[in-house]
Automatic annotation (TrEMBL):
Source organism, top-level taxon: Bacteria
Gene3D superfamilies: CBS-domain, MgtE N-terminal domain-like
Protein name, as recorded: Magnesium transporter
Domain named CBS: residues: 288-356, 357-414
Source organism: Glutamicibacter ardleyensis
Keywords: CBS domain
InterPro entries, A to Z: CBS_dom (IPR000644), CBS_dom_sf (IPR046342), Mg_transptr_MgtE_intracell_dom (IPR006668), MgtE_N_sf (IPR038076), MgtE_transporter (IPR006669), SH3_actinomycetes (IPR058838)
């Protein structure tokens, strides 16, 4: 077994594989957890955050770390697979300390923390002892202007001011460095933050990005973030959300707030949401998507393929084209049938959709229960199904992802 190192920098640990004592891969290290011990004592390192299969992040205490090398980390004993939740005085080094602005004790200026050095004490505990800092220096030019010159230095923990003089990591920097992260993974990162930090980061997201991320968060945190926004911005974010997700979120807020937000939303977007909110909870109409791909029987296969290529469509929604008599806006004219994407790919581009309709699969009633919808999707191996009202007009479609949230436990996003 490799010897335990007594000093290491956090940036070198990120992404390293973490193995259990038997050599089986547990996951990858994503962050380091330290606990503040006041302005006079360096924060203690209490553990690491490991991303295990399934994108779940779990906590491994430092007492379980048996070996740390430049290529891998080995832990000992059993690891609690419960999802990591930040508590009390805990801080995440990457999420909260990297890019924090600090002031040097010698009054030589300020800098940005780029890395954090950990050292092991004689007692075997770990604590922060150094920062790798990008120094920011202001100098006068010949024209009398101030120019910022940067160089990087290694400074001890005692060499920077802590407490009020230490600025928190900017939320916009966190947003920028995680710009490529999938919405579901970004939501996981938000979920693990403290409430205060979660609101700071959410406030710096663009409306469309925040809408995508909100849809992946538990209901309680969706409401928490939406309530922290101004009414005008909250309405803008709701407009960017899928109508069914926006309706689910509005169902969780007070009637007064719901009314105000709907009034501020774009009239067309608000109307879609109002129609969903009008359905009893647990019915097909309450969870459907009111804007599936809809065409007439005279539309060609080429037109249909162009329609399902739209980037904003989810894979499940793009799998089926619903064919109706005009008008094409929901509620449409009489529902005629559907065309699956496989049929589109097999047919000639000029062929009209009316010639390749699947008329055997019945649509669901908008008052059907979610249980009936799930059974229908499973019976016919479908990813989506049309929803009609009692007049036989298409009012929307339900996809697999629409119903999954409603058949899984309420806390599935944060389940242990």
């Amino acid at each position: 077994m490799s010897a335990q190192v007594s000093k290491i920098f956090v940036a070198r640990l990120l992404g390293l594989d973490v193995f259990d004592p038997l050599g089986d891969r547990l996951g990858r290290l994503r962050d380091v957890v330290v606990v503040s011990r006041g302005p006079q004592k360096a924060p203690a390192c209490v553990g690491v955050v490991v991303e295990v299969p399934g994108k779940r992040r779990v906590f491994v205490p430092m007492t379980r770390i048996q070996s740390m090398e430049s290529t891998q980390i080995i832990c000992s004993g059993l690891v609690n697979m419960r999802r990591f939740q930040q508590r009390g005085q805990e801080m995440l080094v990457v999420a909260e300390i990297f890019d924090r602005t600090v002031t040097f004790v010698d009054a030589s200026g300020r800098g940005l923390i780029e890395d954090v050095g950990l050292t092991q004490t004689r007692r075997g505990d770990w604590e922060i002892n150094e920062y790798y800092v990008q120094r920011i220096e202001a100098t006068n030019t010949l024209l009398g202007l101030r120019n910022r010159r940067r160089n990087k230095v290694l400074v001890s923990w005692e060499g920077v001011r802590h407490g009020a003089q230490s600025e928190p990591q900017s939320a916009d920097n966190f947003v920028a460095t995680h710009d490529e992260m999938k919405a579901a993974d970004f939501a996981d990162a938000l979920h693990e933050m403290t409430g205060k930090r979660r609101l700071e980061v959410a406030a710096h997201l663009q409306d469309d990005r925040l809408a995508d991320v909100l849809q992946e968060l538990p209901d309680r945190e969706q409401v928490e973030i939406l309530s922290a926004l101004s009414l005008e911005r909250a309405a803008d974010v709701l407009e960017e959300m899928d109508p069914d997700d926006a309706a689910d979120l509005l169902a969780e807020v007070s009637e007064d707030t719901k009314h105000q937000l709907l009034e501020l939303m774009n009239e067309e977007e608000a109307e879609d949401v109002r129609r969903l909110l009008a359905y009893p909870e647990g019915t097909a109409g309450s969870v459907m998507t009111p804007v599936p791909v809809i065409l007439t029987p005279e539309s060609s296969v080429a037109e249909a393929l162009a329609s399902v290529r739209m980037e904003e469509l989810s894979p499940a929604l793009a799998s089926t084209v619903y064919v109706v008599r005009p008008p094409l806006e929901t509620p449409t004219g009489r529902y005629l049938g559907q065309v699956h994407i496989q049929a589109l790919l097999r047919a000639a581009p000029p062929e009209p959709l009316g010639d390749i309709l699947d008329k055997e699969l019945e649509p669901m009633s908008d008052l059907s229960s979610i249980t009936d919808v799930v059974r229908h999707l499973a019976t016919y191996n479908l990813t989506s199904v049309g929803v009609v009202n009692n007049e036989g007009r298409l009012v929307g479609a339900i996809t697999v992802d629409d119903v999954l949230d409603h058949i899984l436990p309420d806390d599935w996003r944060s389940a242990d």
